[in-house]
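Hi all, posting the design record for the shared folder.

TITLE: backbone redesign
STEP: 1 of 1
STRUCTURE INPUT:
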């Protein structure tokens, strides 16, 4: 995708909201637009799918100048995800996801199959969710439906405008991880707006840092922006603790996992306690019959005979995946009392744990290779 001299002047305003922007967005990559509120991010996005008409300039997708294309056709070929998902409240989940396929006149059976396929893709059980209404879903689930709806007609391009801005941090981390694993498979061309620099570093193949008028101050890989910020303005975005921010560049899948002591529902608590002592720890992780983590139990808990007969899932047990960054893992760790974070893989199966030592180790190796501010000051806050 290529923006050439794209400009938007709103009526009655002196300065252009988007002023002569030229940039190229490589196919199959995620490009993040980051910048302060009012700098023209949303206006830029809405010109790409022509919810807003540019005053000047051209936008090419492939070889086609979309500024001359029928806007309705165009919008059906571009997925659009906004904050709060923007679902139609009086439509079921299924009808929301099937909206664009229906406009494209797919037959009913194909739409039904596609809806279920999309629900599956965003990790929601089709039987449980297809007939619900948006108000019957959590914020994170609504946002997943928003992504499913945008992907339903398999558009090559997706525009995402602060899609995860309205959910809590843990849900946001999960949604980000899910989108990254989807992208591994789907290879869409994605333009993603955020005002959160950490999100930009985590999600972006490239980041465009914008100032007022959507002026591109720096357009580069996350790594380059962190190590060679182009100006004071960019540095102000990176902020303090660049070494800590660099934790966002390292994924959980890049570090060596440790083994926790694990046991299964129905096992003998005395055996479990022995395993815990063998590796010199205090807690055992209970897994269900499909190896999905349920909860931590302490050595003291295990003294109760029959304690493993039935083990309910701990709703506060926060998990990370290989896609998560070490920064995410650290966040989870700081709110848990175990000094470790549980890592799950495909089908939420237990894979291992990240220990706090692993994160500290990653931080100190970053500290010696970057000239950024000391990691230690930030880490001890
Ligand atoms: N419909 C509109 N009419 C007039 N001015 C607008 C309109 N939409 C946005 N603007 C102005 O254009 C500038 C860019 O807005 P926007 O693209 O929404 O920024 P961002 O998404 O980066 O916060 C702001 O100064 C905003 O006030
Ligand atoms: Mg905006």
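Okay, here is what came back for every position:
SEQUENCE:
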């Amino acid at each position: 995708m290529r923006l050439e001299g794209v400009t938007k002047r709103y009526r009655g305003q002196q300065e252009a909201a988007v002023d002569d922007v030229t940039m190229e967005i490589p196919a199959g990559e995620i490009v993040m637009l980051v910048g302060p509120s009012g700098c023209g991010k949303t206006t830029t996005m809405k010109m790409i799918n022509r919810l807003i008409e540019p005053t000047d300039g051209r936008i090419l997708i492939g070889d086609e100048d979309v500024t001359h294309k029928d806007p309705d056709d165009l919008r059906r070929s571009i997925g659009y995800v906004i904050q709060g998902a923007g679902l139609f409240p009086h439509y079921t989940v299924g009808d929301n996801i099937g909206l664009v396929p229906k406009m494209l006149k797919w037959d009913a059976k194909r739409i039904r199959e596609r809806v279920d396929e999309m629900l599956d893709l965003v990790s929601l059980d089709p039987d449980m969710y297809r007939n619900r209404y948006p108000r019957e879903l959590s914020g994170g689930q609504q946002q997943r439906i928003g992504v499913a709806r945008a992907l339903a007609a398999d558009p090559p391009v997706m525009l995402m405008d602060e899609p995860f801005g309205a959910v809590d941090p843990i849900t946001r981390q999960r949604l980000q991880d899910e989108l990254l694993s989807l992208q591994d498979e789907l290879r869409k061309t994605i333009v993603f707006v955020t005002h959160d620099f950490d999100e930009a570093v985590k999600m972006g193949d490239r980041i465009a840092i914008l100032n007022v008028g959507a002026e591109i101050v720096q357009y580069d890989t996350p790594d380059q922006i962190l190590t060679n910020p182009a100006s004071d303005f960019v540095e102000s975005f990176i902020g303090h603790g660049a070494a800590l921010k660099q934790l966002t560049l390292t994924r959980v899948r890049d570090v060596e996992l440790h083994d926790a002591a694990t046991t299964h529902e129905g096992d003998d608590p005395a055996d479990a306690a022995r395993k815990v002592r063998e590796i010199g720890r205090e807690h055992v992780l209970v897994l269900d019959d499909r190896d999905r983590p349920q909860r931590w139990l302490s050595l003291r808990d295990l003294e109760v005979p029959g304690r493993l007969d039935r083990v309910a899932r701990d709703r506060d047990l926060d998990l990370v995946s290989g896609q998560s960054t070490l920064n995410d893992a650290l966040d989870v760790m700081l709110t848990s009392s175990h000094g470790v974070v549980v890592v799950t893989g495909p089908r939420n199966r237990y894979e291992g744990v990240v220990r706090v030592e692993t994160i500290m180790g990653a931080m100190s190796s970053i500290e010696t290779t970057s000239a950024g501010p000391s990691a230690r000051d930030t880490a001890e806050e």
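COMMENT: Residues 41-42 surround magnesium ion (ligand 2) (CB under 6 Å).
Let me know if anyone wants the other runs.
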